[in-house]
Amino acid sequence: MSKGNLLSVREDVRVLDATMRDGGLCNDFYFTDEFVRDLYHNNINAGVDYMEFGYKASKKVFSPDKFGKWKFCDDDDIRAIVGENDSPMKIAVMADVGRCDYKRDIRPKNESPVDMVRIATYIHTLPVAVDMIEHCHKMGYETAINIMAISKNRTEDLCAALDILGKTPVNVFYIVDSYGAFYPEQIRRFSQMYLEYAEKYGKQVGIHAHNNQSLAFGNTIDALQEGVSYLDCTVMGMGRGAGNCQSELLIGFLKNPKYNVEPILDQIGDHMTRLREEGVKWGFDIPYILTGQLNSHPRTAIEFINQGRTDYKTLRIDLLDLD
């Protein structure tokens, strides 16, 4: 049963901008303060509900000499941009299982400008993710759980995981199409599955789509129509590999008058085209089509593109051998 139609205003919808987090994977998180401040203000003016500043990565695992500050999202660096964040937009960060020191680096909410911690996990690291959810909840944060690479998981394992997660205080289950492998029919099916567990446990459901097959926007609005309410996007689709659902498409599509696409167009004109001119790479390309079609991690395509190769048939044959 679809929820709403093309003319509906859904009050439960929340738009999350992940430009700096997923996009940071394209430039090692080296965004200028001017870029970040403009993105912050443009997101507010566009009606965006959450802005994800980057990762809460451990400096013991990743060297600060090799990454920009948004790989680590120190509270003081965020506060230098947002002050006390006197706006309706909430601040989010992502914490990756095994790549963050969450008990040390995630301080109580009353000491931080951050509102939501999104926890990224694979299904086999779920017990650690549950502990992270519990910790962040005790610290006073909203939480979301992103189970990555679900296109590689068995349905019964994913159902078991959602049942476990439903018993935690997590606020949002995220459908994550890590490899850009899903088609709309599959997204509708996963949406129904996630929503069934969300209704059982009083949670919300979100979607984070990748654009390997030019389906990130289409898959996002298909999930929306099924009842998914947290919608990820990035400006100009900036994100690892093929990138994500484009903010300018999603915000231009949503019918709630609180959303306004024009500030996003300002961000594109003032900053995104310059990033492309400076050599930062992301977006639709033939190698990403192949990894999406073959349900494979984009690292192979990224390396292929960085090497300047064009022997696409060879890449496809190599991808067929990976599994």
Quick overview:
With 323 residues, the chain is α/β, with parallel strands linked by helices.
Q: Mind explaining what this structure looks like?
A:
The structure is a single chain. The chain is an alpha/beta fold and 323 residues long. It folds into 2 domains: 14-277, Aldolase class I (TIM Barrel), CATH 3.20.20.70; 286-322, no CATH class. 43% of the residues lie in helices and 14% in strands. It is built from 14 helices and 8 strands. The protein has helices at residues 19-22, 24-27, 33-46, 75-82, 102-105, 126-138, 155-166, 184-201, 216-226, 247-253, 262-277, 286-293, 299-306, 312-322; strands at residues 14-17, 50-55, 90-96, 116-121, 142-147, 172-177, 204-209, 230-233. Strands 1-2-3-4-5-6-7-8 form an 8-stranded parallel beta barrel, surrounded by 4 helices. Strand 4 (116-121), helix 6 (126-138) and strand 5 (142-147) form a beta-alpha-beta unit. The longest helix has 18 residues, at 184-201. The chain is globular, with a radius of gyration of 19 Å. The mean pLDDT is 96.
